[in-house]
């Protein structure tokens, strides 16, 4: 599937799973980065990274999230990510739960380093 189509689908998923989220474009270098936060907050809870051919959804506090479906990747102290191309359609409900839990914890949101390189440990 074309990356543009996948990005549009990912943005639609995020909007439906977290309708109150504010989306900000924070492109740095090659690719595109979209930050998702609560209204009026300056810190991001989620980050959608276009790193062709990958589309990654980073969770600022992913290490603390329950993940019974095993979708989260990474070994950092706080952050985790989901490679959206690897998520099966049957796992979409689990991804929605991860987004909802991350959004619910947004009152204690943690800033995501927008200069983070996707190849580095999340």
Overview of this structure, please?
The chain has 122 residues and is α+β, with helices and mostly antiparallel strands. 23% of the residues lie in helices and 21% in strands. It has two helices and five strands; from the N terminus they run αβββββα. The protein has helices at residues 3-17, 92-104, and strands spanning 22-25, 32-37, 46-51, 54-59, 80-83. Strands 1-2-3-4-5 form a five-stranded antiparallel sheet. A hairpin with a 2-residue loop joins strand 3 and strand 4 (54-59). The protein is globular. The model is unreliable at 108-122 (pLDDT under 50).
How would the blueprint of this fold be written?
Blueprint lengths: L2 H15 L4 E4 L6 E6 L8 E6 L2 E6 L20 E4 L8 H13 L18
Comma- or semicolon-separated keywords:
2 helices; alpha+beta; disordered C terminus; 122 residues; 23% helix; single chain; five-stranded antiparallel β-sheet
In a nutshell, what does this entry contain?
This protein has 122 residues and is an alpha+beta fold. The protein contains two helices and five strands, in the order αβββββα.
What is the overall shape? globular
Count of alpha and pi helical runs = 2
Name the helix and strand elements from N-terminus to C-terminus, one letter apiece. Answer: HEEEEEH
Query: Spans of 5+ residues with little confidence (pLDDT < 50)?
Result: 108-122
The helix content is 10-25%
The tally of strands reads: 5
Taking all Cα atoms into account, the compactness measure Rg is 13 Å
Profile the largest sheet.
Answer: 5 strands, antiparallel
Strand order of the largest sheet: 1-2-3-4-5
β-sheet strand percentage: 15-25%
In round numbers, the mean pLDDT is 84
Structural class: alpha+beta
How far apart, in Å, are the first and last alpha carbons?
A: 26 Å
């Amino acid at each position: 599937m074309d990356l543009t189509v996948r990005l549009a689908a990912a943005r639609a998923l995020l909007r439906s799973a977290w309708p109150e989220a504010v989306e900000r474009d924070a492109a740095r270098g090659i690719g595109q980065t979209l930050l998702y936060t609560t209204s009026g907050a300056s810190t991001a809870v989620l980050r959608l990274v276009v790193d062709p051919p990958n589309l990654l959804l980073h969770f600022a506090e992913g290490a603390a999230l329950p993940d019974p479906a095993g979708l989260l990747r990474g070994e950092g102290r706080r952050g985790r990510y989901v490679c959206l191309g690897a998520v099966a359609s049957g796992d979409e409900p689990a991804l929605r739960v991860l987004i909802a839990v991350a959004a619910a914890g947004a009152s204690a949101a943690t800033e995501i380093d927008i200069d983070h390189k996707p190849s580095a440990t999340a």
